[in-house]
Write a structure and sequence with these properties.
Order of helices and strands: HEHHEHHHEHHEHHEEEEEEEHHHEEH
Subunit structure: The SWAP complex consists of NPM1, NCL, PARP1 and SWAP70.
CATH class of one domain: Mainly Alpha
Radius of gyration: 54 Å
Shape: flat
Number of helices: 14
Protein name: Switch-associated protein 70
Organism: Perca flavescens (American yellow perch)
Subcellular location: Cell membrane; Cell projection, Lamellipodium; Cytoplasm; Nucleus
Pfam families: EF-hand_SWAP70_N, PH
Largest sheet: 7 strands, antiparallel
Length: 588
Amino acid sequence: MWLRDELLKSIWHAFTALDVDQRGKVSKSQLKVLSHSLCTVMKIPHDPVALEEHFKDDNKGPLSNQGYMPYLNRFILDKVQEEFDVMEFNKMCWTLCYKKNICTKHLLISDHEAFKVWCIFNFLSEDKYPLVIVTEEIEYFLRKLMEAMGSGLNEEKFADYKLQLNTKNNCLSAWELIELVGMGYFSKGMNCQTLSMGIMEVFQELILDVLKQGYMMKKGHKRKNWTERWFVLRPTSLSYYVCEDLVEKKGNIILDRTCCVESLPDKEGKKNLFIIKCIDKSFEISASDKKKKQEWLQAIQTCIQLLRLGLPSPHREARLRRREHRQRQQSEEDDLAERMKHLQAANENKQRQLEGMRKKMEEAAAKAAVEEHRRKQTQLDLQDRYRLDLEKEKMVRQQMEEQVAQKSSELEQYLLRVRELEDMYHRLEEALEDERQAKQDEEAVLKLQARLLEEETAKRAELEQIHLQQQRVLSQTEAEKQELVAEQLAKERALQAAMLQLERMERKRHGALEQYEEVSRKLERAANKTKTWKDKVAKHEGLVRLIQPGAKGPQRITNWGPASFTDAELELRKKSWQESKNQGAQAQ
């Protein structure tokens, strides 16, 4: 919708330029040329017969803007589908209109800069025809321009200029704005190059939607090398070029709602890194310093957030807010003017009412004078009567004071009795509270006794289960004893065979004796260091044992695995098991 409105503004300039007589009408032949040029630039198939068919009943001569608009909407603007070069479209409309309206020879700017100011005018102008730019948008544009030139807007000079605009309905046409900028009224003391660069920067920001641009290093996808590129950020893309003249474009990063930008730690000798993650690719970029990195991160994140919310570019959003603010302000001013009219009418009515009230007050004053004389006479009569009544009141007052003194003494006695009753009531409340507390303690004791009985019952059941388990364990231990006896006989036979093998190995032992003595000395030093830990491990009934050089004889196999115990340890465990068995039998 916004694109159609901006296209219509440029077309309106072209249509107005074709109106040589300034009667608001253009000939059909000129409209055919204009329509063909529009279709060519906007990549729309041109139908030369459509114009004749649309206006076949109009044989009265040239066509007005209102008559051309339905054809423009139906046969041109409604068919815009492919993307086309909007700048080429604007240049075509500018070429048709600028020579008939302004000459840039006496200005500080060239035709190219004037075209950029013309585009900025179309962007900031109101959506009403004839097109004008209001004071607020003029101030916004001039502030942007002065900031781009590294200066500030002269407030006093602009205030004087606003007074001059009052004679022009607080607005300017496109050609008046170009003349204002080209004459250098607000940029005195600056050369033409600075003014041209300032116009270029504002044009890129507002018209080309360039939110940020500058040099950064980019990591390649194939060779992984770092190359300096000139980056240009727009609301939907981040393009990068060989240099800032924007001639050789190297790539384009399309931004959408699925993209994200994140900071990266320094690596590969590069600092101030961040990454842009898209669906198909990720781009690693290095800024020149931390401040630039933060600015780029914030700018790219803002673009992605606007895309996720479905909002237009920041400048279009700001322009929309300014227009809404002006509309609200205009509505408030209209409401205020309407209220002022009502207040003025009400004020006139009040004046008429006050005049009538003044006449009534004069009549009332005459009546009040007669009433005042009568009142004074009556007041003298009342004073005599009040004097007599006052003497009677004094007598009655003395009697009342005596009665009050008597009642006061009775009241003091009554209050003393009330305080005694209150003390007694408080003592009774304390006694009742003590009694309630005693009952609560008694209930708590009863609950505790009941809980202890339940716990004792549970413990008794648990002890019975333990007794049954002990019996099962004793029977199991008897079976294990028989297995151990059989196993011991097998181990004795294995021991005899091992003794024969030991005799053969005795001869080999002498050769390894020196090595063994060296290992023994090292083992002794290690044993001294780990003595405390060894003592702790020994308490776990052989479940965990230190690995030490064992005897060369045959190893015993137990339920805990081969060589879990020595013969001495096994004998100790047999004695311990026998003692526990005897104690269990005695307990039964």
